[in-house]
Write a structure and sequence with these properties.
Blueprint (H helix, E strand, L loop, with lengths): L8 E5 L4 H12 L3 E6 L12 H10 L3 E6 L5 H5 L1 H9 L4 E4 L14 H29 L2 E6 L17 H8 L3 H20 L5 E7 L3 E2 L2 H6 L8 E2 L1 H11 L11 E3 H8 L21
Parallel strand pairs: 1-2, 1-4, 2-3, 4-5, 5-6, 6-9, 7-8
Helix pairs in contact: 1-2, 1-9, 4-5, 5-7, 9-10
Length: about 290
């Protein structure tokens, strides 16, 4: 299979559905062999989507993928991911840390178990997997680590506040403080990894959507209305592709949003099979 990732091997976590599945499909369309990681192996779970379905979709399009069932909240569950992917595909070039855990509860009511899960999945798992992947990226002579973040990592402004401002209302009523705190830590982790490995040909970046992405998990959370910016899932997949094939000399230590990155690079949003273009909504429209 030809493409900008031909001959490369990628691990994508949280790839049973949503952004992870989209990234895996886009990478496979560009020639990568992809190891897909998630807890949901077969259809029939609480949410639509499974590793088996993503693998089948990639195979039907002529790509190659393998499913690795694992619990990213568990150090023991994480430990076998990189060895299994390398055993299957004999190398590793790209790691995409996409899996996430979120509970949107008032921060004053958040329980220790909520903190444990949020930081285990959203911070410890990317750190653990990056450490496991690093020797293989070095052996390959270059590599890419991409951490999927969130706009909730941004700090809300200080008082005085406009009670009618939608951004302020979201920060007040959306209860994303815990999730945002874990993603802010992930962004800082990304920047630190990038600068500490700056003498090597390994690009380490963080990517977040500019707005809501209509994935299965996000639809389950709900709470959107006609004023929300809904970003096509293909935009995240295209931005991830750019951050996982451009060299470390071109893009490294970036903590970026998908659409501004694509605009800066002059890259159009393509369909997940790479064969067509995606019609983008006008900013601010429903």
């Amino acid at each position: 299979m030809t493409g900008v990732l031909a001959g490369k091997v990628a691990i994508v976590t949280g790839a049973s559905r949503g952004i992870g599945a989209a990234i895996a499909r886009r990478f496979a369309a560009e020639g990568a062999k992809v190891a897909l990681v998630a807890r949901t192996l077969e259809p029939g779970g609480a949410l639509a989507g499974s590793l088996a379905e993503t693998v089948a979709t990639i195979a039907e399009a002529g790509g190659e993928a393998v499913a690795i069932q694992a619990d990213l909240a568990s150090p023991e569950g994480r430990a076998g991911i990189v060895p299994e992917a390398v055993a299957r595909f004999e190398r590793l070039d790209i790691l995409v840390n996409n899996a996430a855990w979120a509970r949107f509860v008032p921060i004053c009511e958040a329980q220790p178990k909520h903190f444990d899960l949020a930081f285990q999945v959203n911070l410890h798992a990317p750190q653990h997997l990056s450490q496991a992947a690093l020797p293989h990226l070095r052996a390959a002579g270059q590599g890419w680590i991409l951490n999927i973040s969130s706009a909730t990592a941004d700090l809300p402004p200080p008082a005085p506040w406009d009670a009618n401002d939608r951004y302020i209302a979201f920060n007040r009523d959306g209860h994303a403080t815990l999730y945002g705190a874990s993603k802010a830590a992930l962004d800082r982790l990304t920047a630190g990894w990038a600068v500490e490995l700056s003498r090597e040909r390994i690009a380490i970046n963080s990517l977040a959507p500019v707005g809501a992405v209509a994935s299965e998990g996000a639809l389950e959370v709900g709470g959107w209305d006609e004023h929300d910016h809904i970003e096509p899932i293909e935009a995240m997949a295209e931005a991830a592709l750019q951050l996982c094939h451009c060299t470390a000399a071109e893009l490294n230590g970036q903590v970026v949003r998908s659409l501004p990155l694509l605009e800066r690079l002059g890259v159009a949003v393509r369909t997940l099979d790479g064969r067509g273009l995606v019609a983008m909504p006008i900013a601010g429209s429903a």
